[in-house]
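Help needed: design a sequence for this.
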């Protein structure tokens, strides 16, 4: 199986794209979870699906050669991110309402464009659930550039993002331009969501941004450790998930998320056992 991923171009592209996504999704996911914005990936993923369906519709009706559904998906995701940020300004006291609004619009547009593109086909199915053989050279290049942008953004604004994530008011008082930074943060999130969809699919993209983070939070002792462990858990889940998806001939998204969930469950179980043993040991010392 490993040999197949190395020797065949499509599978090799998928593996490389998976490794990139396994890096940037948990990396950004740590900040999203700490900021209590875990649902934002769901909202943006459904807007991205609308863009993908729109791209398929345009390809079918007008044979656009310059743009693929992946490109229109990224465009819609970025637009959705801008709308979310604008709605958060409009509803300052109820900022969380921005996500269900954009999610609902995304679902509605998706249904319309899928119907106009003559219903669910193989392309839409792979976007919904991910695929082990759907990454072209152009897609891989675009995901690589998105990954470079995300890593550069995190490295450049790490301290300010850290401050905003844990204490928004203190960060603003300290001189952090919160509005501008939040604007770019949600744009980067939109790019990560749209890139991740090629691997795990629309319906499961938020899991790759949260499950590795949830797992690492149980074993890490600092914020930086949480980031490192999240990336490790994310990469392990992607590699195992892709191989399992190829072996069992099922969508990669499902196997990646199941692997992430198993890693989380195993970690919680081990921590529980460790706690029980510690309590038992303390009782023996007390006796």
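Sure. Designed sequence:
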């Amino acid at each position: 199986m490993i040999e197949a991923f190395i020797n065949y171009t499509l599978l090799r592209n998928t593996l490389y794209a998976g490794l990139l996504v396994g890096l940037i999704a948990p990396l950004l996911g740590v900040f999203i979870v700490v900021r209590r914005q875990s649902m934002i990936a769901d909202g943006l993923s459904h807007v991205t699906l609308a863009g993908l369906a729109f791209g398929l519709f345009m390809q079918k009706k007008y044979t656009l050669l310059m743009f693929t559904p992946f490109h229109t998906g990224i465009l819609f995701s970025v637009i959705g991110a801008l709308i979310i940020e604008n709605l958060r300004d409009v509803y300052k006291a109820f900022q969380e309402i921005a996500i269900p609004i954009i999610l609902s619009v995304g679902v509605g547009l998706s249904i319309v464009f899928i119907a106009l593109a003559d219903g669910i086909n193989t392309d839409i199915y792979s976007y919904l659930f991910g695929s082990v053989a759907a990454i072209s050279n152009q897609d891989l290049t675009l995901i690589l550039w998105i990954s470079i942008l995300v890593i550069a953004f995190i490295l450049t604004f790490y301290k300010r993002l850290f401050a905003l994530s844990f204490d928004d008011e203190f960060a603003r008082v300290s001189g952090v331009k919160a509005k501008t930074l939040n604007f770019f943060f949600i744009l980067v999130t939109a790019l990560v969501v749209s890139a991740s969809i090629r691997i795990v699919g629309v319906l499961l993209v938020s899991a790759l941004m949260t499950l590795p983070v949830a797992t690492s939070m149980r074993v890490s002792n600092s914020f930086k450790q949480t980031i490192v462990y999240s990336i490790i858990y994310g990469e392990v889940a992607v590699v195992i998930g892709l191989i399992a998806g190829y072996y069992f001939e099922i969508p990669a998204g499902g196997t990646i998320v199941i692997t992430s969930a198993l890693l989380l469950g195993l970690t919680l179980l081990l921590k529980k056992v460790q706690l029980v043993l510690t309590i038992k040991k303390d009782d023996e010392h007390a006796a």
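The radius of gyration is 20 Å.
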